[in-house]
Design goal:
This protein is an all-alpha fold. It has ten helices and no strands.
Length: about 200
Amino acid sequence: MALNCLGAVLLGYVLGSIPFGYLVVRWRLGRDIREMGSGNIGATNVSRILGKVWGRTVLVLDIAKGLFSVVGAGVIWGKIPVVLALAGLGGILGHIFPLYIGFKGGKGVATGIGVILGLGLFYPMVIFILGGGLLGWFVLYRITGYVSVGSIVFALIVLIGAWIVKIDVVFRIFLSCLAVLVIYRHRENIARLMKGAEHRTEL
């Protein structure tokens, strides 16, 4: 079991480390996205630099790597909650601290969406939490124009939903940790929002 857990984390981390935002900007402009815009490799910064078509492309790719981290672990080791959760954790940590570009990555929201979706394929009740989080993200983003506000609200809904929806305790702990991590990664955005200095982005 220990080897399965280790394998799941490594699988998720290797997939999560694929820096799609970095690769797309390097391909299109020949530049390092970490030296442009906000310095983040995620879809929001890509959208600022290359436009919303490429931003959405990176968004889908970042979601996909979270999804495949969990699905891959489920196919290889079975739908064991702790194994799936660890694969998801590995995927998110890979996105935030990518192996291939010096451990400076994104904030984990899109990859986290993919991870939750992957968990939901094996345990459908998790989909309700994802649906609530996405709805909250969409509503707040449309109202405020701030991707960061939508992402923070998404994390809060996931945190609350994890303890309302009937799911395995492993998923409760994992989703709670994910939500706290996403909010922590947005600490600079929160500071800018409080100062009125946050940038609106069309995604």
